[in-house]
Specification:
CATH topology of the largest domain in chain B: Rossmann fold
Strand order of the largest sheet of chain B: 2-1-3-4-5-11
Largest sheet of chain A: none
Distance between the termini of chain A: 12 Å
Number of helices of chain A: 15
Order of helices and strands of chain A: HHHHHHHHHHHHHHH
Structural class of chain A: mainly alpha
Distance between the termini of chain B: 89 Å
Radius of gyration of chain A: 21 Å
Number of strands of chain B: 12
Number of helices of chain B: 11
Largest sheet of chain B: 6 strands, parallel
CATH topology of the largest domain in chain A: ABC transporter involved in vitamin B12 uptake, BtuC
Radius of gyration of chain B: 25 Å
Structural class of chain B: alpha/beta
CATH class of the largest domain in chain B: Alpha Beta
Order of helices and strands of chain B: HEHEHEHEEHEHEHEHEEHEEHH
CATH architecture of the largest domain in chain A: Orthogonal Bundle
Number of domains of chain A: 2
Number of domains of chain B: 2
CATH architecture of the largest domain in chain B: 3-Layer(aba) Sandwich
Shape of chain B: elongated
Helix content of chain B: 40-55%
Largest interface: A-B, 37 and 39 residues
Oligomer: heterodimer
Strand content of chain B: 15-25%
CATH superfamily of the largest domain in chain B: Response regulator
């Protein structure tokens, strides 16, 4: 079996396994799996409204997935996407509410601010890793909490007068569009999906088609070999964290300028950054893979909301079924190994 | 090159499948709707969207769901699409989707529970002008939205009276969750109640800054009891669970200790049978039943704000603990105050400013 075929088959088998085990659990606890999965499908694609909501959810997922995947390709585990996502969200709204500029300048400026904020937040663990070999996992986890509380403080004390929600961003900075909403029956579908697709292309081009991308990948494969070959490992580590953080910050901009149009004080994490890890894994850390994995996760997330109402499946069971699909997706390594062995036998 | 073409073809097929799937489905649904329109006399249906707490949060989501269940029972409705139901939000982004889903399922009235949903309710109400919505603990100014507020100060006033008549040290504690208009109403009413019943007593006010940090609640309660406060009231959600823990611990160490805690929202007597004096009740369930009944009878108060106080049975005080020495006296005094508040003789302050000019006589 060719490598490419295995790459495509693995996630599909993972999803199927998740669905099968979910079916068994539903049968065992007395719910009708066919109604449940129909409800899941209808909740994601049954009406044009839901399809719009799925795309809305997919947009930040793509960017969060790209952020994790990019760092992965350079051998770094960026758990801090959630924190970079939050500072990006804040920065985008900050620019969105504080300036009065023509749309052609304001919108790109707000998006850029989010990317820079995310990049700066990721620069810290990148620098610590490159200079002092501090493990990026610990630093990024801690910076998630720092980001959460710093953002809450700024929202309460700088952007508003002790309120828990900022004003809406100015019309000139919004990604929302009446037209997109009207064709999807008032979903929150917004232009951000274009940004996400462009970023997919940027990631692919940067990694696969440029010298810098080759260097980054080389560092990911083997740092010592890369160093021996005369590449600057430290600089590449910092660069990859910064780009990864910029993607994460952009994901935040999608929520701040598109989905919500404001930023609120949060009691906990949104989960987008963490879902990004699963999306990157499922997508095999490639731009195209992340794109499709994000669609799957977005559809699952939106569709699952419909299951309790339409199929009477309790929320907890829905969580278990979705988690199972994610579980098999995340353990796709096992499937890959099995497929590999199976393929080798066939060749003999 | 060939490979790339295959990839392209694959994604096109997927995209087409998605789009066509969407078309086919929406046609089906249009058919369903017509069929539904054909059957007349559809039963009144009502649903709610919880915030991330869910319907078992031991607080107002749970209370609202209990109200909806009671309303369903009263009117012979079943849980589900043709009766009453709820959707749970897993993140802030889900509020809009859930509200929209329920409106699309043609529920006659959709509740958004909690002030967090204010923005989402306002937006969806503008889009779905034919549907009725209600929001609890916040105000939305749209013709098809009814806003539900509570006079929390009246409940906490009564709790203040009970606290002032129980304290021996004349020192009383108040633990707030996060500073906000709602918690300020609790605070102002409580202080007013204490002053009205016992002008010599002082109230020590502290905010935890969170609704979900029991350990923080416990450390504040510990400091309060140590500094001589013998009755502590909390309006801090799950943070207040730490108060009950601390009070129960102290009581276990020294059974003669004269310390009490007062609960909030629902009757929290089971949090510490020996230490919970009473609870300031906020009857979200009653408000939900009341508004649903109004809507069912065709009197939906769209565009209005309804404030539930003592007179409307929207707030109240839970039974006083049997072990309280002055139980009979407290009950007598509380009932007197209830009459005064209901008749309008006493207006309980709802903000710190109003508290300054408040006098019970």
């Amino acid at each position: 079996m060719s490598k490419r075929l295995i790459g495509i088959l693995t996630p599909i088998i993972a999803v199927l396994l998740g669905i099968i085990v979910g079916t068994i659990i539903m049968l065992a606890s007395g719910y009708d799996p066919i109604t449940a999965y129909t409800a899941l499908w209808n909740g994601a694609f049954g009406e044009v409204y839901y399809t719009g909501e799925v795309i809305r959810q997919v947009t930040p997922y793509i960017l969060a997935g790209l952020a994790v995947a990019f760092a992965f390709r350079v051998g770094l585990f960026n758990i801090g996407v959630e924190g970079q996502f939050l500072v990006g969200w804040l920065a985008a709204v900050w620019v969105g509410v504080s300036f009065d500029l023509p749309r052609i300048i304001h919108l790109p400026l707000a998006i850029l601010a989010a990317a820079i904020a995310g990049a700066l937040w990721a620069f810290i663990p990148g620098l610590l890793k490159a200079r002092l070999r501090v493990h990026e996992v610990i630093v990024t986890i801690m910076l998630n909490y720092t980001a959460l509380h710093v953002c809450n403080y700024i929202i309460k004390n700088v952007l508003t007068d002790n309120k828990d929600k900022t004003d809406l961003v100015k019309d000139s900075a919004t990604l929302r569009s009446e037209w997109l909403q009207s064709i999807t029956d008032y979903s929150r579908f917004h232009w951000g999906i274009i940004v996400a697709i462009i970023c997919c292309f940027i990631m692919w081009f940067l990694l696969e088609r440029t010298t810098k991308g080759f260097e980054l990948r080389a560092v990911g494969f083997n740092q010592h070999a890369a160093q021996y070959a005369g590449m600057n490992v430290n600089r590449n580590i910092i660069l990859s964290m910064v780009i990864s953080g910029a993607f994460a910050g952009l994901a935040g901009a999608m929520e701040g300028l598109g989905t919500f149009g404001y930023v609120t004080v949060k009691g906990g994490f949104t989960g987008v950054g963490f879902d990004g890890i699963a999306i990157a894994l499922l997508g095999g850390n490639t731009a195209l893979g992340v794109f499709f994995a994000a669609i799957l996760f977005g559809a699952l997330k939106i569709g699952a909301l419909n299951m309790p109402l339409e199929a009477g499946v309790p929320n907890e069971l829905v969580d278990i079924i979705i988690a199972l699909i994610v579980f098999f997706v995340a353990s796709s390594y096992i499937i890959r190994k099995l497929l590999d062995r199976f393929g080798k036998k066939e060749v003999k | 090159m060939k490979k790339r073409k295959i990839g392209m073809a694959l994604s096109l097929v997927l995209a087409a499948g998605t789009l066509l799937g969407a078309c086919g489905k929406s046609d089906d649904n249009a058919g369903d709707d017509n069929a539904k329109g054909g059957e007349k006399e559809k039963a009144f249906t009502v649903a709610m969207v919880t915030d991330v707490g869910g319907v078992d949060d031991k607080s107002f989501n749970q209370s609202a769901w209990e109200g909806l269940q009671a309303f369903g029972k009263e009117n012979g409705l079943e849980k589900g699409k043709d009766g009453y139901d709820y959707l749970q939000s897993k993140s802030d982004a889900d509020y809009s989707t859930n509200l929209n889903t329920l409106a699309r399922q043609d529920f006659d009235l959709v509740f958004g529970i909690g002030f967090l949903m204010q923005g989402a309710v306002e937006e969806i109400a503008k889009q779905q002008k034919d549907h009725h919505f209600a929001i609890v603990d916040s105000e939305v100014d749209q013709p098809n939205v009814a806003s539900i507020l509570f006079k929390e100060q009246e409940a906490s006033f009564l709790a203040g009276v009970a606290a002032a008549m129980t304290t021996k040290s004349n020192k009383i504690g108040f633990i707030g969750g996060v500073e906000s208009a709602v918690i300020e109403r609790f605070e102002a009413g409580f202080v007013a109640g204490v002053k009205a019943a016992n002008p010599d007593a002082t109230v020590d006010i502290q905010y935890a800054g969170a609704f979900d940090k029991a350990e923080l609640g416990q450390s504040i309660a510990s400091k309060m009891y140590s500094s001589g406060d013998d009755v502590v009231f909390h309006a801090a959600g799950a943070t207040g669970n730490g108060l009950f823990k601390e009070a129960t611990d102290r009581k276990a160490k020294d059974p003669n200790a004269e310390i009490w805690a007062i609960g909030v929202d629902s009757d929290q007597a089971n949090m510490g049978p020996d230490v919970v004096l009473t609870s300031a009740l906020k009857r979200v369930d009653n408000a939900v039943v009341d508004l649903s009944t109004k809507a069912k009878d065709g009197n939906f108060p769209g565009g209005k704000t309804i404030t539930y106080g003592l007179s409307e049975d929207g707030v109240g005080l839970a039974p006083i603990n049997e072990k309280a020495a002055a139980k009979a006296d407290i009950e007598k005094a509380v009932n007197e105050w209830i009459e005064k508040i209901k008749s309008g003789d006493v207006k309980v302050p709802g903000t710190r400013d109003e508290l300054k000019s408040f006098s019970a006589q």
